[in-house]
């Protein structure tokens, strides 16, 4: 399994240390309290952290107090059973009180010295009561037929949605310019109104999509670190990059990532966390050609010194090493040359003593001593004169290879004579007799080669961490497909051929 170098936790560790020295004192006066412990929880993107714990609750009075000022943003009051009570804001004031009745939280929430929280609680009250009203309508469907129940609830839902929309528009206008607005704006979907008709007379779905995409981040201030604490922010980022953007090419993702990071303050908390998120996400992406996104992240943001607050020097060096391998294997890159020995000459080379060489110097001396004999034996990748080359790295003792290689051989038989291709199959180990017997038994119609001289660093040249690994190259040995399954090869060759005919 390939080692992964990166994690967004590295960034979180940096983010949560940014305290100033003024202190905080936040009290909760709770009627009908049954909790013996409460937590003050802060979210940062897609992770949550306990900022403070109160283990001494007397007569419903809870106090969170500390000498270091808490970072601004959204916090959540959570019980010892991990039940979430409600969100509230810490902004300009670090000394305030919140009161509520545990039996009716939404309708009793009050806050002193914080207009922002009063607005938050007013919104929560309206939405909670709206949901309660809808649940009461559900109860009224008892005894009705299924059709009548659906009709009744749909009518009520349509009417309630109209009221909710009016309330939200009015409320957002009222709190515009505050962090409450930013909080609620983050969960609001920006959908097109007055959608024009397409040629078929229906609403233009393409217009609707582009409106939604282009306005998806309207009102989001990426320069404000507090947005990392908004519960909807991580979902909005992930939905945009996983579902809203067309996933047809890595270039489209690169463009959108650059746009979002450009909207952040360089080396700010939002910038650093999103940089780590995108790097980690696309370093793991298994889709063919999408490793280009990771290489782009490294080249533009990490290897040029813009990520020193995100990654350690050692990690950056590990990223560089990884990217130096990947960069040469991107789709449309020229495949590296290989100097291999065919099965026909295998025994001759083995007798030269390469298998018993103890050191690199010993192997080099053997190579120089036998260079005149070896040179005419070399089978190079560039010598394969064909329209398409299927380049395979495999091991005779690999159980997965024992399944995939026969499958590859059988699949290619079906298109033989229809498409000009050859298979350059590289055995990655040195057990010559075992390998030779296996390929004869299986009747592999390949160029069967190996590297007993240790001349080719195939691990780094072709990123061979495990086997089998399959590439498809064009006539100029340009990489057209890589790291594909055996049963995909014939289909891809047919596809490439059809595209060329067009």
Short synopsis of the structure:
With 502 residues, this protein is of the alpha+beta class. It has helices at 9-15, 105-108, 115-139, 146-174, 179-187, 205-214, 233-244, 250-262, 269-283, 291-302, 313-327, 346-350, 360-369, 371-374, 399-413, 432-442, 458-461, 486-501, and strands at 24-31, 38-44, 47-54, 61-66, 73-79, 84-90, 95-101, 110-111, 339-342, 378-380, 388-394, 421-427, 447-450, 469-473, 479-482.
CATH top level assignment of the domain at 339-501: Alpha Beta
User: Uncertain regions: pLDDT < 50 for 5+ in a row?
Assistant: 1-21
Give me the number of helical elements: 18
**Rg computed from alpha carbons, rounded to a whole number of angstroms:** 32 Å
Averaged pLDDT, please? 91
Structural category is alpha+beta
CATH topology of the domain at 339-501: Glutaredoxin
Q: Roughly what fraction of the amino acids lie in strands?
A: 15-25%
The first-to-last residue Cα distance is 40 Å
CATH architecture of the domain at 339-501: 3-Layer(aba) Sandwich
Question: Helical residue percent?
Answer: 40-55%
> Can you summarize the main beta sheet?
7 strands, mixed
Task: Give the beta-strand count.
Answer: 15
- By CATH, the superfamily of the domain at 339-501 comes out as Glutaredoxin
User: Which word captures the global form?
Assistant: elongated
For the largest sheet, list the strands in their spatial order. Answer: 10-9-13-12-11-14-15
């Amino acid at each position: 399994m390939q080692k992964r170098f990166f994690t967004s936790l590295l960034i979180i560790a940096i983010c949560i240390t940014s305290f100033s020295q003024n202190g905080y004192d936040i009290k909760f006066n709770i009627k009908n309290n049954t909790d013996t412990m409460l937590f003050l929880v802060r979210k940062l993107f897609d992770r949550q952290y306990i900022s403070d714990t109160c283990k001494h609750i007397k007569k419903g009075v809870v106090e969170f107090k500390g000498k270091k000022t808490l970072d601004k943003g959204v916090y959540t009051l959570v019980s010892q059973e991990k039940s979430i009570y409600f969100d509230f804001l810490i902004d300009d004031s670090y000394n305030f009180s919140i009161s509520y009745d545990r039996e009716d939280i939404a309708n009793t929430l009050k806050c002193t010295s914080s207009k922002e929280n009063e607005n938050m609680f007013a919104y929560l009250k309206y939405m909670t009561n709206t949901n309660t009203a809808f649940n009461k309508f559900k109860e009224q469907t008892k005894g009705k037929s299924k059709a009548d129940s659906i009709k009744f609830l749909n009518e009520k839902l349509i009417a309630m949605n109209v009221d909710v929309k009016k309330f939200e528009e009015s409320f957002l206008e009222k709190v515009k310019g505050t962090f409450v607005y930013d909080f609620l704006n983050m969960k609001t979907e920006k959908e097109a109104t007055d959608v024009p008709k397409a040629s078929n007379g229906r609403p233009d779905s393409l217009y609707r999509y582009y409106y939604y995409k282009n306005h998806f981040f309207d009102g989001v201030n990426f320069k404000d670190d507090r947005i990392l604490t908004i519960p909807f922010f991580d979902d909005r980022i992930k939905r945009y990059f996983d579902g809203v953007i067309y996933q047809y090419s890595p270039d489209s993702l690169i463009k959108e990532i650059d746009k979002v990071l450009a909207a952040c303050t360089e080396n700010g908390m939002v910038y650093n966390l999103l940089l780590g998120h995108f790097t980690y996400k696309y370093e793991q992406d298994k889709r063919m050609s999408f490793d280009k996104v990771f290489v782009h992240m490294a080249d533009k943001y990490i290897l040029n010194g813009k990520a020193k607050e995100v990654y350690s020097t050692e990690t950056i060096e590990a990223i560089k090493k990884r990217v130096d391998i990947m960069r040469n294997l991107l789709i449309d890159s020229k495949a590296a040359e290989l100097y291999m020995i065919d099965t026909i000459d295998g025994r001759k080379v083995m007798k030269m003593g390469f298998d018993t060489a103890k050191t690199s110097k010993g192997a080099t001396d053997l190579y120089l001593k036998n260079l005149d004999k070896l040179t005419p034996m070399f089978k190079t990748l560039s010598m394969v004169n064909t329209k398409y080359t299927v380049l395979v790295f495999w091991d005779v003792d690999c159980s997965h290879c024992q399944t995939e290689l026969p499958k590859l051989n059988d699949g290619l038989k079906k298109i033989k004579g229809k498409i000009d291709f050859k298979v350059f199959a590289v055995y990655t180990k040195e057990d010559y007799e075992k390998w030779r017997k296996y390929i004869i038994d299986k009747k592999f119609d390949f160029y069967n080669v190996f590297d007993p001289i240790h001349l080719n660093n195939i691990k780094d040249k072709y990123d061979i961490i495990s086997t089998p690994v399959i590439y498809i190259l064009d006539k100029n040995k340009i990489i057209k497909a890589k790291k594909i399954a055996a049963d995909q090869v014939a289909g891809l060759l047919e596809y490439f051929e059809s595209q060329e005919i067009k």
